[in-house]
Design brief:
Blueprint lengths: L6 E4 L16 E5 L8 H10 L5 E5 L8 H9 L8 E6 L1 H13 L7 H5 L9 E6 L11 E6 L4 E6 L7 E4 L9 H20 L5 H23 L4 H20 L4 H13 L3 H16 L4 H8 L11 H18 L16 H9 L2 H4 L8 H9 L6
Parallel strand pairs: 1-8, 2-3, 2-4, 4-5, 5-8
Antiparallel strand pairs: 6-7
Helix pairs in contact: 5-6, 5-7, 5-9, 6-7, 8-9, 8-12, 9-11, 10-11, 12-14
Amino acid sequence: MLTINSTLISGAGAFNALEPLLEGKQRVLLITDSNIVRLEAAQRINALLHEKHRQVQVIDNVPAEPSQHDVIALLASLENKHIDIVVGIGGGSVLDVAKLFSVLCHPDEHTIEALLAGEKPQQRICSLLIPTTAGTGSEATPNAILAIPEQDTKVGIISPVLLPDYVALIPELTTSMPSHIAASTGIDALCHLLECFTATVANPVSDNAALTGLAKLLRYLETSVNEPGNLTAKLEMLWASYYGGVSITHAGTHLVHAHSYPLGGKYHLPHGVANAILLAPCMSVVRAYAVDKFAQVWDLLPRADRTLSAEEKSFALVDYLAALVKRLGLPDNLEALGVPRNDIPALSDAALNVKRLMNNAPCSVTHAEVQAIYQRLFPAT
């Protein structure tokens, strides 16, 4: 069982708790993106990094859904790779790149090509990850996901070495998220928790993390979207997302993410949006193979009818998931997002090829069944 040894700090106003983590770290690499770098909370952290005569290099142009080519270009932009600590402030893409740089900047140099080919890193430099969205849980996973444009999909680089030394959950960094981003990243966290809870590789450790995260998320997701200044809801969502990452580390996602990868890889759909569209259709397939676990999740809902049978609860949960996505105002079909219906066979081929995730599903699916899931994402003809 993989152990997560990251030191965590959390809470509103936790900025001052960052300074002890930087002690003795004179050469800092800050990785973020063009939106985050302008946030007042991010600028406060940036100012802290520049104190005590630290040498700070900044990469502030990490793209959404980065590819291996983006990582190579960003690495080439560094003045030098002699780094004491990598600090990542951002969403999943930024945090994944920060984790990769903690390996790529280590003196025992690895190339991104070697990592994609399956080479397992043995060492990294110190890393501090600070999420600005409550969704990916990247700060708690040994995964870094990259788009592979040549294959119209995504690939995960996975190694426990990628797990960070430090994680900071600071809700002020999430209050400026537009509501549609808060909604889609929240659904991403929900997918992590629910898929890991129902995976074939689920275990007591991952189940405990998933249920803890689900209890927080199902209570606070809509509040965090509708009340962006509610620091309690924002912090609870950061913890829900973190527990989603813990669940991934100890188990793994399956159908939703396997179907989502081709949509992100070929059409560059935001990951949370693709997952939101897929959530209810995929879970309607999983339901029959996870009735008792679906019932447990239903019972976590604040206003759940607990008098229902387990079977009834499982059906009710699928209906709830579909209604939740709709209430959050997220897209409900692929055609509106520019995905042509005649690409369904190719999408199905690509999804089935994500065997690392498909093998985690509690049920096997045929090519025809995968096509049927995608077909549900288009308006009836």
